[in-house]
Design a protein that fits this description.
Blueprint lengths: L8 H10 L1 H15 L7 H13 L4 H18 L7 H15 L18 E6 L6 H14 L4 E4 L6 H14 L3 E2 L7 H14 L4 E5 L7 H18 L6 E7 L4 H13 L4 E5 L9 H9 L3 E5 L7 E3 L2 H8 L4
Parallel strand pairs: 1-4, 1-5, 2-3, 2-4, 5-6, 6-7
Antiparallel strand pairs: 7-8
Helix pairs in contact: 2-3, 3-4, 4-5, 4-11, 5-12, 6-7, 8-9, 10-11
């Protein structure tokens, strides 16, 4: 039995397909970088460095990967360019397995000692935040979990309406106070409802953008304080949603949000429509916050729990 045989076949196929654009772009750049070269030398490593940076892996993570390959070349004396795919794959997998962001291998499971489990979802507008909440709700619901949603992005009517549609589609209650209302009041009522219904999980949407960092910090702090009136250790998870197709912009957003609130998990969406999938490698390495979910397509099941080894396997799989 191979390393990747225990992942569901459908999930793996969906991941392979979702990363196609990133993979094709990466390998075409890599092939151009080593054309006519048989040995991995300084010149080839410079080219590989450029390929990794232009594939949105990020400068800091790229430097770490190149350093590892240099050490390997020094140790093995001769490394052929035909081995480069395998070495890159092994060193990236090794780098990601060393950082603190633990793989969430327990497919959409919830901690038994926290009921309802409270997830506060943050992120700028347009990253797929509300869709991610809807898909998460569907995934939990499919597994027999009782779910409540809170439409706390009260600055945008579209966000409230979209979440209500997801609620109808999935068959879960959505607590909303409409637009231009106090988001912390929505969070309070959603958690109260979840306790009444003995729900397993409550997912609270929040505003995608407030005018300043101070406003955003104050708003998120207030929502947390109000949640804690019902459940003292809420929220149990602060999930930051990032749009993978924006590449390094997603990294900048992650830096901003981790400064203003205690982000505990990341979801990276829209990887199927972009060649910037390498950003997942950089984000996973840089932030030491678990990448918990990735979006690799339109379907509900295309929101997957992230597994580093599985991701690296798909990213480096040549057809």
């Amino acid at each position: 039995m191979g390393l990747f045989d225990f992942f569901s076949k459908e999930k793996k196929e969906s991941l392979d397909k979702g990363l196609e654009k990133s993979k094709d772009s990466f390998f075409s750049k890599l092939s151009r970088a080593v054309v006519g070269k048989s040995k991995v030398d300084d010149e080839v490593l410079d080219e590989v460095e450029e390929v990794l940076v232009s594939s949105d892996v990020g400068v800091e993570t790229t430097v770490k990967i190149i350093k590892r390959i240099e050490e390997r070349v020094a140790r093995d004396k001769y490394v052929g360019t035909d081995e480069l795919d395998r070495i890159l794959r092994e060193e990236i997998a090794s780098l990601l397995s060393e950082n603190k962001s633990v793989d969430i291998s327990n497919d959409f499971s919830l901690p038994a000692d926290k009921k309802p489990y409270v997830i506060m979802v943050v992120g700028v507008n347009g990253v797929g935040k509300t869709t991610t909440i809807g898909k998460l709700a569907a995934q939990f619901h499919q597994r027999g979990r009782k779910v409540v949603l809170g439409a706390g992005d009260t600055f945008r009517a579209a966000a409230v309406d979209q979440l209500k549609l997801w609620g109808q589609r999935v068959g879960v209650p959505v607590i909303d106070h409409g637009m231009n209302t106090d988001p912390s009041a929505v969070a309070f009522d959603a958690i109260k409802k979840a306790v009444e219904l003995q729900a397993d999980v409550v997912i609270i949407d929040t505003a995608g953008r407030l005018h300043t960092k101070v406003n955003l910090m104050n708003e998120l702090s207030k929502i947390k304080r109000v949640m804690q009136k019902v459940i003292p250790d809420a929220p149990h998870e602060v999930l930051l949603v990032l749009d993978g197709s924006t590449g390094q912009n997603a990294v900048i957003q992650a830096r901003e949000f981790t400064r203003v609130t205690d982000v505990t998990a990341l979801a990276i969406t829209k990887l199927d429509g972009t060649a910037k999938g390498g950003v997942v490698i950089g984000i996973s390495d840089e932030f030491k916050i678990p990448v918990k979910y990735i979006g690799v397509g339109e379907k509900i099941d295309d929101l997957q729990t992230f597994n580093k080894m599985e991701f690296v396997d798909s990213f480096f799989k040549r057809v």
